[in-house]
Amino acid sequence: MRLFFSVVGCFVSFASLAQVPAQLNYTIAPWFHNRQAAVSLTFDDGIPGQYSIAVPLLDKFGFKGTFFTVVAIVNNQRISWEDINETALKGHEIGNHALTHPHFIKIPLDAVRREVADASKHMNMLVPAQQMITLAYPYGEGGGYSAKDQAIRKTIAPYFIAARATQNKLQPYNAYNFAKTNEDYYMINSQMITDAETMNNFGKYIDETIAAGGWFCPTYHGIENGWIITPGKVFEKHLKELDKRKASLWIAPFKNVIQYHKERNSAKLKLVESEGWRWKLSLTDTLSNRKNFDQPLTININTNGYSVYRILRKGRKMPFKQTANMLLFDAVPGPEYITIDFVRVKPVKSAK
């Protein structure tokens, strides 16, 4: 009799296990945490007000910016490299803006190469909190459409995952599909914040970006002091405009948005194994230099009503959210498998 009940118990168990969904229905969100659009606030040159005024304001609102830095300008300003490294430790990005800020169009390509390589070498030592993996072209030269611009892009590409230009599109933002080729990542469109018109239109630019599902990447210079000055009160007003719309926006440093976009457009999630109440998944991409790509992607999976109680990777629990049929979690592409354990109860179908 004991043997009979044991066999029946096993039969019921395996019958239940057979109901776990055997196919993977997923999407990778266009932007992190399913936001509608992305924004990266960038600052050029290395001007005192960027660190004494802009950084505290960014921290107040919980936003992170990107500071494209010229080594020679910082050395001639009242800024310490310790303060810049502290800014990096807070989660802001420090990017490369060349050694001396020359006109790339006017100098040989070997000189362009030295300008960016030497700047990275210096800043990687002076800002040990992070490595330089993005560039902003001095004067935007390298982000245009001439043969010399194209040659500049080819010269600097081995050193960086992307480069920001000045405004090279009709609209102030980048449409989501801005990168038809890898070269397009080295000519990112940026609206320069330079005058009363661009300062006053900031909210309008954000709304246009949200409507397009794109990426707004404005360029600031002086905040309260320096050159091409944005008053501190105006900059704070811009942050308030972002804060009002933050439910729709992913506000992140330049490098993080580039990482996400490149990873997302080359990533694939596969169901490697479906056994019992567990899925084994792989999340990989085709990017070759993994050390420069560590931005998590937001994964949305339709579980057909099955509830999840645990997600593991490398033996560690991963945070997740589940509403109705959708499971949401964040993960970096890599070789480690992701396991999803389902609650051992069949979903109840509502009566029609």
Automatic annotation (TrEMBL):
InterPro entries: Glyco_hydro/deAcase_b/a-brl, NODB_dom, Polysacch_Deacetylase. Keywords: Signal. Residues 1-18 form the signal peptide. Residues 37-145 form the NodB homology domain. SUPFAM superfamilies: Glycoside hydrolase/deacetylase. It comes from the Bacteria. It is found in: Secreted. GO terms for cellular component: extracellular region. Pfam families: Polysacc_deac_1. One of its GO terms (molecular function) is hydrolase activity, acting on carbon-nitrogen (but not peptide) bonds. Transmembrane segments: none annotated. GO terms for biological process: carbohydrate metabolic process. This is NodB homology domain-containing protein. It comes from Mucilaginibacter pedocola.
